[in-house]
Design the sequence.
C-alpha cells in the first residue's frame, strides 16, 4: 500500500484515480464484443420475445416493436467468425477449383480455419479474463494479498485441474459457438433438410445443379458394411465436408454434436442451478433451525435418494411427454427440472455439514442476540461459508447430469427428436460399431467420457485449490469423499 | 403459583417484582439427551433492578451461561425451559414467547456480549458493517447515517481513530479492541439490560481492567442494567452491586457484593473466596475445593455441594436446602443476603433448621419425579 489514504478509497475512487489499466482492459473487451456483436444480438433476438411482447400493456407494445426492429437490425450485422464470412460450403469444378468457399479454399481447410479462429477467439476471452484479474489485483484491489491469490496459485500448479479446465473450455466453446462451428447448420441439415438446397457440380450434366439437402443426405448415409459410408474427415459426393462423418441418416455428425453440446450444457447448468439453490436453502434452514425442520428434510432427501434417480426421471419424462412442459426447449426444460428435483439431496448432503458447522459459530448467536431476522442471518452470516463447497460439488455433479441426459437420449427418452443430443448419436450408431461406420457411436461416446472426466478434474482442481492444506502431501485424504456424483 | 412456595419465607429475598427490570423466578432449563435429562439450570431465582449490576459467579459447568442463554431465548433443542419457569423483563413474560416475538426483545431490550470477541465477530465483514447491521435493525439507520453512528459508538467504547477503524476487519483488531467493538455492537441496539457472558475471560489482565472500567462508564452513561457472568471473584468485586453464587444449576448464595466478600455464609462461597490467589498471601499452597461440579440429572433431594463440603453432616445428604435469609446483626439491616445451606438460619438449632428446609422443599419436589438421587 502506497499512501495511507488509499486504503479508505472505494473501488470507484481507486478506478477514478488510475483509469488507464482499466480502460485498456475495457478497450480490448469492446473490440472482442464488437467483432461478434451481430451474433450476440442474434442470440438475444432468438429468445421468445413474442411472448413477452404480447404480455406487455398496449402503450408499451409500440416501444417494444421499435426495440425489436433495432434488435433485428443489429442481429443482421456481419460477424467476424460467422459461417458467411468464412464459408466452407461450395463445389469443386473438374479443374479442381473450389467455387463458393472462402477464398477458394477447400471446404476442409475453410472449416478448420474457422474452427481455429473461433477457438482462438474463445482463448482470447480466457486470457482477457485472466488479465483483468491481474489488473484488478495489481491496480485496484484494497489488499496486497487475499486468500484467492493462493487459490489461483494452487490451481495453476494443479495439472489435473488445468486439464479439466482445458476440456471444459473446449466444451463450452463448442456449445456457445455451436451454430458457427458446424460445417452446416442444424436448421439446414438436420431439422428442415427439405426446405434448404445446395449447389453441386454434376458430372452427368456437366454443369452446376441444385439439390435439396434432404435428397443429398440420402446419398451421404453411413450404413456400415456393404452400404454407403462417409467417415470422419471425408467429403460426400456433393462435395460437403464431414469432420466427424455422417449419421446413418446422412446428416452431419459434427453439426449434430455441436448443437447437442448446447443442449447438454443447458440441461446440466439449469438443473444444477435448481438443485444447488434448493440444496443451499435447505442446508441453511436445517442448520439454523435444526430439530424438526432438519428431520423433515432428512426424511425428504432420504426418500428421494432411495429411489433410483434415472428410473424416476424416465418414468416422469414419459408421464410428462404429452404436456406443454415437455415442449419447452425441445424437452430440455423438463429434463433440467427432473434432474434438479431429484439431484438436490446429493448436493444438500454435501453442504449440510459445512452449514451446520457455521451455524454453531458464535457470531450466529450474536446475530440472534441482537434480534437479527433468521433469513438475514442465514444469508449474511452463513451463506458465504457454504457457497464454496457448493461450487465444488456442483462441478463434480455436472458430469453426472450430462451422462444421465445422454443415457436417456440413448434410450429414446428425454430430448425430442430431431433436436440433437449426444446420447441419440450413440444410439443411432449402435448397429454399426463393428463396421466402417464405427464413428457414429464411438466419437460421441469418447466425447462424453472426455467431458465428464473434464468436469470431475475441474472439480478436483477447484477443491484442492480452495483447501489450503492440499499444499501438504497428506492433505489429500478426503479425495474419495468428494469423487463424482450424479446419475 | 408453585414457584412462589419455594421462596415464600425467604424474607427480604422476595422483593416486589414490579420495580425490578428483570425478574427470574424458578428458572429451570433442562437438556434432554438420550440417556438422561440434564438439569443445567435448576430452579434459580434472582432479579436485577434498573441500573444495577448483578454478578453471576460459579465454577465452569455450574449453569451460568445457560442462564444467560435462557434469558436471551437462545436455548436450542434439545434444551427447553420447564413450564414453571418465569422470566419477566420490564413487566413482560418472556417464557413461551414465539421466535418472532422474541426478536423484539433481543437487542432492543436485552443485548448480550459473548465470551470470545474473535468468534463473535464474523470475519468476512468489517466491524463497521456489523455494527451497522444492528443499527439498521434497532434504530432504522442506514447508509452514511449508520456509518456515522457506528463511528460514534466506536468512539464511545474507546477505540482510537474510529473513523478509520470502522472499515477494518475483525482480524485487524487486537483482542481488547474486538471486545470493545462487540460491546459497541450490543450498544448499537440501545438495550436496557446487557448480559455480559464472561466478557473478559479471553483477555489479558490489563485489558480486562480497561473493559471493566468501560462497562462501568457505559452503565452510568446509558443507565444500563448489567448481568455479569464470570468465574473470577476479582472481577465480581470490581463491577457488581450484588452477587449470586451458582453451583450445579442452583443459586446457593445471594448478597450485595461487599456483604458477600466480608461475610460469606455458604461453605461453597467461602471455598471460592479462599481460592483467589491474591487473598491468600503467605500461604504455601493455594487452597482449592476438592472434586468437581456434579452434573445434575434429577430434581435435587439433597445438597449438591455436600460431597465436597467440609462442613457437611448427615442431613445434607437427605434434605435439599432452600435459600434462607442469613444477614447478621452487624450487617446492614436490609442487606438482602440469602444462602441455601442447612447450617442456616444460625439462630435455630440444627434440627429446627433442617426441618425448616425439609418443609420448604416439599411442595415443588413432592411426587414430581421419584427421587433417583444424584449421579456423581
Sequence:
Amino acid at each position: 500500500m502506497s499512501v495511507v489514504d488509499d486504503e479508505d478509497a472505494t473501488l470507484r475512487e481507486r478506478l477514478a484515480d488510475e483509469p488507464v489499466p482499466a480502460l485498456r482492459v475495457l478497450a480490448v473487451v469492446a473490440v472482442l464484443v464488437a467483432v461478434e456483436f451481430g451474433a450476440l444480438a442474434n442470440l438475444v433476438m432468438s429468445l421468445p420475445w413474442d411472448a413477452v411482447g404480447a404480455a406487455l400493456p398496449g402503450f408499451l407494445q409500440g416501444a417494444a416493436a421499435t426495440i425489436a426492429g433495432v434488435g433485428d437490425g443489429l442481429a443482421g450485422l456481419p460477424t467476424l467468425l460467422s459461417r458467411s464470412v468464412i464459408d466452407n460450403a461450395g463445389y469443386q469444378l473438374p479443374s479442381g477449383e473450389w467455387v463458393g468457399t472462402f477464398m477458394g479454399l477447400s471446404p476442409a481447410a475453410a472449416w478448420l480455419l474457422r474452427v481455429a479462429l473461433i477457438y482462438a477467439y474463445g482463448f482470447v476471452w480466457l486470457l482477457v479474463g485472466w488479465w483483468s484479474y491481474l489488473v484488478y489485483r495489481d491496480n485496484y484491489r484494497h489488499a496486497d494479498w487475499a486468500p484467492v491469490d493462493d487459490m489461483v496459485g494452487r490451481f495453476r500448479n494443479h495439472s489435473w485441474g488445468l486439464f479439466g479446465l482445458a476440456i471444459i473450455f473446449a466444451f463450452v466453446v463448442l456449445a456457445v459457438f455451436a451454430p458457427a462451428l458446424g460445417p452446416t447448420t442444424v436448421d439446414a441439415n438436420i431439422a428442415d433438410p427439405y426446405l434448404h438446397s445446395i449447389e453441386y457440380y454434376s458430372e452427368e450434366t456437366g454443369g452446376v445443379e441444385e439439390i435439396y439437402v434432404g435428397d443429398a443426405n440420402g446419398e451421404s448415409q453411413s450404413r456400415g458394411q456393404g452400404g454407403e459410408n462417409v467417415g470422419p474427415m471425408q467429403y460426400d459426393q456433393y462435395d460437403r465436408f464431414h469432420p466427424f462423418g455422417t449419421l446413418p441418416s446422412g446428416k452431419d455428425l459434427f453439426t449434430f454434436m455441436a448443437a447437442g453440446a448446447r443442449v447438454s450444457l443447458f440441461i446440466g447448468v439449469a438443473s444444477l442451478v435448481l438443485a444447488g439453490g434448493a440444496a443451499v436453502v435447505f442446508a441453511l434452514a436445517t442448520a439454523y433451525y435444526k430439530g424438526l425442520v432438519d428431520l423433515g428434510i432428512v426424511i425428504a432427501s432420504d426418500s428421494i435418494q432411495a429411489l433410483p434417480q434415472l428410473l424416476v426421471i424416465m418414468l416422469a419424462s414419459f408421464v410428462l411427454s404429452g404436456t406443454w412442459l415437455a415442449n419447452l426447449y425441445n424437452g430440455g426444460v423438463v429434463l433440467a427440472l427432473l434432474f434438479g428435483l431429484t439431484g438436490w439431496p446429493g448436493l444438500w448432503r454435501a453442504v449440510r455439514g459445512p452449514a451446520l458447522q457455521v451455524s454453531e459459530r458464535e457470531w450466529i448467536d450474536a446475530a440472534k442476540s441482537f434480534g437479527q431476522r433468521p433469513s438475514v442471518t442465514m444469508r449474511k452470516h452463513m451463506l458465504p461459508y457454504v457457497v464454496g463447497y457448493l461450487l465444488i460439488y456442483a462441478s463434480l455433479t455436472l458430469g453426472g447430469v450430462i451422462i444421465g441426459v445422454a443415457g436417456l437420449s440413448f434410450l429414446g427418452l428425454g430430448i425430442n427428436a430431431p433436436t440433437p443430443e449426444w446420447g441419440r448419436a450413440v444410439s443411432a450408431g449402435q448397429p454399426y460399431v463393428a463396421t466402417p461406420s464405427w464413428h457414429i457411436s464411438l466419437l460421441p461416446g469418447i466425447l462424453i467420457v472426455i467431458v465428464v472426466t473434464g468436469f470431475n478434474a475441474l472439480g478436483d482442481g477447484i477443491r484442492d485449490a480452495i483447501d489450503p492444506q492440499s499444499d501438504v502431501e497428506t492433505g489429500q485424504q478426503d479425495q474419495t469423499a468428494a469423487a463424482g456424483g450424479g446419475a | 403459583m408453585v414457584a412462589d412456595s419455594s421462596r415464600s419465607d425467604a424474607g427480604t429475598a422476595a422483593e416486589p417484582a414490579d420495580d425490578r427490570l428483570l425478574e427470574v423466578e424458578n428458572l429451570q432449563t433442562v437438556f434432554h439427551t438420550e440417556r438422561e435429562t440434564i438439569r443445567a439450570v435448576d430452579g434459580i431465582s434472582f432479579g436485577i433492578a434498573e441500573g444495577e449490576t448483578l454478578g453471576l459467579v460459579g465454577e465452569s459447568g455450574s449453569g451460568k451461561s445457560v442462564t444467560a442463554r435462557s434469558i436471551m431465548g437462545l436455548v436450542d433443542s434439545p434444551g427447553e425451559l420447564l413450564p414453571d419457569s418465569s422470566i419477566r423483563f420490564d413487566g413482560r413474560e418472556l417464557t413461551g414467547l414465539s421466535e418472532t416475538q422474541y426478536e423484539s426483545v433481543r437487542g432492543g431490550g436485552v443485548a448480550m456480549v459473548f465470551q470470545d470477541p474473535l468468534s463473535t465477530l464474523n470475519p468476512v465483514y468489517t466491524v463497521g458493517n456489523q455494527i451497522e447491521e444492528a443499527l439498521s435493525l434497532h434504530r432504522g439507520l442506514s447508509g452514511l447515517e449508520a456509518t456515522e453512528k457506528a463511528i460514534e459508538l466506536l468512539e464511545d467504547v474507546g477505540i482510537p481513530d474510529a473513523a478509520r477503524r470502522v472499515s477494518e476487519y475483525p482480524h485487524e483488531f487486537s483482542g481488547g479492541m474486538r471486545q470493545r467493538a462487540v460491546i459497541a455492537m450490543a450498544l448499537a441496539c440501545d438495550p436496557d439490560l446487557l448480559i455480559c457472558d464472561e466478557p473478559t475471560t479471553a483477555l489479558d489482565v490489563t485489558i480486562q481492567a480497561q473493559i471493566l472500567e468501560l462497562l462501568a462508564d457505559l452503565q452510568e452513561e446509558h443507565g444500563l442494567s448489567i448481568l455479569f457472568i464470570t468465574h473470577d471473584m476479582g472481577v465480581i468485586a470490581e463491577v457488581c452491586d450484588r452477587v449470586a453464587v451458582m453451583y450445579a444449576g442452583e443459586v446457593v448464595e445471594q448478597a450485595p457484593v461487599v456483604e458477600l466478600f466480608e461475610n460469606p455464609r455458604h461453605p461453597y462461597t467461602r471455598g471460592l473466596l479462599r481460592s483467589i490467589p491474591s487473598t491468600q498471601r503467605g500461604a504455601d499452597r493455594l487452597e482449592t475445593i476438592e472434586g468437581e461440579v456434579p452434573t445434575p440429572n434429577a430434581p435435587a433431594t439433597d445438597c449438591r455441594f455436600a460431597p465436597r463440603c467440609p462442613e457437611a453432616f448427615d442431613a445434607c445428604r437427605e434434605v435439599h436446602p432452600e435459600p434462607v435469609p442469613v444477614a447478621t446483626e452487624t450487617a446492614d439491616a436490609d442487606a438482602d443476603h440469602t444462602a441455601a445451606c442447612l447450617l442456616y438460619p444460625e439462630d435455630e438449632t440444627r434440627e429446627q433448621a433442617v426441618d425448616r428446609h425439609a418443609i420448604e422443599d416439599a411442595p415443588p419436589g413432592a411426587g414430581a419425579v421419584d427421587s433417583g438421587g444424584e449421579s456423581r
User: Anything to note?
Assistant: The first strand of chain A starts at residue 91 and ends at 92. Residues 57 and 64 of chain A are 10 Å apart (CA to CA). The domain at 254-482 of chain A is CATH 1.10.3720.10 (MetI-like fold). Confidence is low (pLDDT under 50) at residues 1-6, 472-487 of chain A.
